[in-house]
Specification:
254 residues; alpha/beta; TIM Barrel; binds 2-phosphoglycolic acid
Length: 254
Amino acid sequence: MRKQIVAGNWKMNCSLEEGQKLASEVMQLMLDEVQNETEVILIPPFIHLSSINDQIPFKDKLLIGAQNCHQNESGAYTGEVSASMIKSCGGSHVIIGHSERREYFGESDALLAEKINSVLKNDLTPIFCCGERLESREINTQESVVGEQVRNALFHLSEEQIAKVVIAYEPVWAIGTGKTASAEQAQEMHAFIRKTIAEKYSNETADTISILYGGSVKPENAKEIFSQSDVDGGLIGGASLKSRDFIDIVQAFD
Ligand code: PGA
């Protein structure tokens, strides 16, 4: 059985006070309502990691993660944060290669491969993001684009290492736009990603990797998307900033 995961990427939102309030609402709603086995991950800005970690009394189903990390362990990299620092603040997951990092901060596949190594070396779980832009979807090249992103950033890993990676398919045209991929489009791409991994490694390994969908997931569309056989959960942006919506998405697995 693959792990079902719902991760909330807060992006650059929330003051400390707002973040703490959001985290405590999510915790309370989880205690009161959530009965399924979904792993829930809160991914606040770096600066809130430690205090939000201290707020969470139960670490079995509610975890925290970071939105990015530097590829090196330490050193003269002003303004950067390493995977080991994230770990020391209680983080267990790190998003790598979000399309906003690729687009606004020029992160290349080669750099992402190094970041993945650093995350794994620190025994954290990378949530590796991939996804095509609208131009590619329009000319039907989405599979070659996503296949290349996956190969370039992950295929240097051993079979044991890749089994520890979570993948998030996030079509760039669906992020923050209100346009969601249809459940069929998500399923098709998730199956393609799994097949790409199976061809390089094995069916067994490909079958253990959780592949999340991201891009305008809301309580209204989560159920249909999560019901697809190769969709193992979601990476949620906008809707993760509202505790009620976020928990309704977690409940979409029931
Ligand atoms: P969105 O963002 O849910 O606001 O579209 C998803 C993401 O960027 O991870």
